[in-house]
Write a structure and sequence with these properties.
Layout (H helix, E strand, L loop, with lengths): L7 H17 L8 E7 H7 L15 E5 L9 H6 L9 E10 L12 H10 L4 E11 L5 E9 L7 E3 L4 H9 L9
Antiparallel strand pairs: 1-2, 1-3, 3-4, 4-5, 5-6
C-alpha cells in the first residue's frame, strides 16, 4: 500500500505496472499510447464520481489518464519533443512496442530505415517488447524516471529498471520540464 511518504520511484513504478497491465489487456501490435499521471487523491477531490472506476485509490497513489489524441506518427521522440504538461500533471508515461535483434545480428541490419524495419520484422531471432517509460516531477524540481518492459516471448515476467531504455525515458522526462508544448 502506498502512502505520501512512499518514495517517488515506488509511486512511479506502481503506476507504470498498472499502465502496462491495462495496455496489455488489448494484446500486442498497438500504437504508442501516452498517459498523464496525477495524484489519485487530487483527482478524486476534483472528480469524486471517478472513485468507482479507479483500481488503486491508496494514499499517495498516482492515476493515469490516457491522452486519446496522441498520434506520434513514425518519429516517437520528435512527437514527445512537442509535448509539455501543465503543473497539475505530476508525471507522464508512454507505452510503446518495439522489435529488436540480438547484438550478434545487428551488423547485418541494412542502413536504410525502411529496409532495416523489414529486415527486423522478418528475422527469425526478432524479439518483441512492450515498454512503459515514465517520469515524475519531484518537489525539488528534479524529475525521476523509470520503466517496465514485457517480452512477448516471455509474457509472465515483467522487467523493471531505471536505465532499460535511456533515450525514451529521457524524452518522456523532458516533457515535464518547462517548454513551449501543450498536452
Amino acid at each position: 500500500m502506498l502512502n505520501q511518504s512512499a518514495q517517488p520511484t515506488e509511486r512511479l513504478v506502481a503506476a507504470l505496472v498498472e499502465i502496462e497491465r491495462f495496455v496489455g489487456r488489448a494484446g500486442w501490435d498497438q500504437p504508442a499510447r501516452l498517459f498523464a499521471l496525477v495524484p489519485t487523491d487530487e483527482l478524486l477531490a476534483a472528480e469524486p464520481s471517478l472513485a468507482e472506476q479507479l483500481t488503486v485509490t491508496a494514499e499517495g497513489a498516482l492515476s493515469s489518464i490516457e491522452q486519446d489524441d496522441f498520434r506520434p506518427g513514425t518519429d516517437l521522440l520528435t512527437a514527445l519533443g512537442r509535448i509539455g504538461w501543465p503543473a497539475a500533471v505530476a508525471g507522464c508515461a508512454l507505452a510503446t512496442e518495439r522489435s529488436f535483434l540480438p547484438a550478434e545480428v545487428e551488423a547485418a541490419v541494412p542502413d536504410d530505415p525502411q529496409l532495416a524495419a523489414q529486415y527486423v520484422a522478418n528475422h527469425p531471432l526478432r524479439c518483441d517488447v512492450r515498454v512503459v517509460a515514465g517520469a515524475l516531477r519531484q518537489p525539488d524540481g528534479h524529475v525521476c524516471s523509470h520503466s517496465v518492459a514485457r517480452l512477448a516471448s516471455n509474457p509472465e515476467d515483467l522487467l523493471v529498471g531505471a536505465d532499460m531504455v535511456p533515450a525514451l525515458t529521457q524524452a518522456v522526462a523532458w516533457t515535464l520540464h518547462d517548454n513551449e508544448g501543450n498536452a
